[in-house]
Amino acid sequence: MRRITLNRPNRKLRGVRRHLRSLTKWADLIHFENDLRPGEKYVNFKVPLPAALVEGPRSRHRLQADVISQLLRAAEKLARQQPPENSQFYRVAVLLTLPDLFASEVTLFFDEDYFHGFLYENSLPDLQRPSQLYAVKIPEIFDIECGCLVSYTDDEYVYRSHHWTITASTPHQI
């Protein structure tokens, strides 16, 4: 279950093991039904966890690494799945947003041009790659790990995050 805590970010996290078991089960059971609507460019699967578990003052590095690993497992399973029958293009990617991991997702792309909008020119050093930073093993099927720094300005606050795309270099063409 996705949940955002706005009023008590320092509250003690409860049921961490239960949430991680639920995430593992989600990664094991994830699948895409072949009900692709005409013109649909993508389908995404968000992290099914409370936000406080993966970001904020109570989140831990090890928990974040576990979440990234499960996202990669889910993406690998979807990449090995039979693509939708009425799709001309099929690509699976993990879209990571760091440090705000709650915004991360596994995305299925059905439009090649739309997909290329998420392939960033890699402008971040190798030491900041999620595979290096969190010591997670990326499945062999995914050989692209590219990221960039994104900045948003809201009134006087400047928000900066690293956006990473982890995907395969060859699409599943039908």
Q: Secondary structure elements and their pairing?
A:
Blueprint lengths: L15 H14 L12 E5 L4 H4 L6 H19 L11 E8 L6 E5 L2 H5 L13 H4 L10 E11 L2 E11 L7
Helix pairs in contact: 1-3
Question: Rg to the nearest angstrom?
Answer: 16 Å
How far from one another are the termini?
34 Å
The 3D shape can be described as globular
Task: Supply the number of helical segments.
Answer: 5
Provide the residue-averaged pLDDT. Answer: 85
SS-based structural class?
A: alpha+beta
Q: Which sequence of strands runs across the widest sheet? A: 1-3-2-5-4
Helix content: 25-40%
Task: Kindly estimate the percentage of residues that lie in beta strands according to DSSP.
Answer: 15-25%
Name the assembly state.
Answer: single chain
Q: How many domains in all?
A: 1
* SSE pattern: HEHHEEHHEE
Topology, number of strands: 5
Sheet of most strands: 5 strands, antiparallel
Which consecutive residue ranges, at least 5 long each, have pLDDT under 50?
Answer: none
Protein name: DUF3916 domain-containing protein
InterPro entries: DUF3916
Gist of the model:
With 174 residues, the protein is of the alpha+beta class.
